[in-house]
Specification:
about 180 residues; 13 strands; mainly beta; six-stranded mixed sheet; Immunoglobulin-like; five-stranded mixed sheet; signal
């Protein structure tokens, strides 16, 4: 004679099995890439380089090139950095700096014309809109076709959102946006 478990035990076992099957079936559609990491992939189309003119201001991320069309020159401007000197904490102490010295690199490449870029035409602002004191490695640089120019702007950058604005005509023409992380 075969002994069967009580009906309540059979019902619990069947219910548990059904729940497992339902849960497993839902997982296949809701998390097809569970355990994988997102990978940045190029867009299907290449975006045109933004153009800034006397009447057309541009806001871009640091690293993005901007075509700049001025009365005397047609050029590309690009900012990289900042290259921040992260402070080294004392042994056993956490890193707790709110600012650190760093350098932004601004590169100009002209396709036509000639332009002298004074270092004073740059304005750095932290996330509270307080000015970042910028110190350039040269008072000005001159760019023309075949002779790119680079200016390095040093500052003590505060942690957080920061912008660098270039004002070659006395008003903002290009602003590069970036985040300073000190950790």
């Amino acid at each position: 004679m075969t002994h069967l478990p009580p009906p309540a035990a059979l019902l619990r076992t069947a219910a548990a099995g059904t729940l497992v099957l339902v849960a497993a079936a839902g997982c296949a559609d809701s998390a097809p890439a569970a355990g994988s990491y997102p990978v940045a992939t190029p867009q299907a189309t290449v975006l045109a380089t933004p153009t800034a003119t006397a009447g057309g201001y541009q806001l871009v991320a640091a690293g993005d090139p901007v075509r700049v069309v001025l009365p005397d020159a047609d050029l590309t401007a690009q900012v990289s950095g900042p290259d921040v000197d992260v402070p080294t904490p004392a042994p056993g102490q956490p890193l707790s700096a709110e600012s650190a010295p760093g350098v932004l690199t601004v590169t100009f490449t002209a396709t036509s014309g000639r332009l002298t870029v004074p270092a004073s035409s740059f304005l750095g602002l932290d996330e509270k809109q307080d000015p970042e004191a910028l110190t350039a490695d040269a008072p000005s640089v001159t760019v023309e076709p075949g002779h790119p120019a680079t200016v390095h702007l040093a500052s003590t950058f505060s942690t957080g959102h920061t912008t660098l604005t270039w004002q070659p005509l006395g008003t903002p023409l290009v602003t590069w946006d970036f985040v300073v992380e000190i950790d």
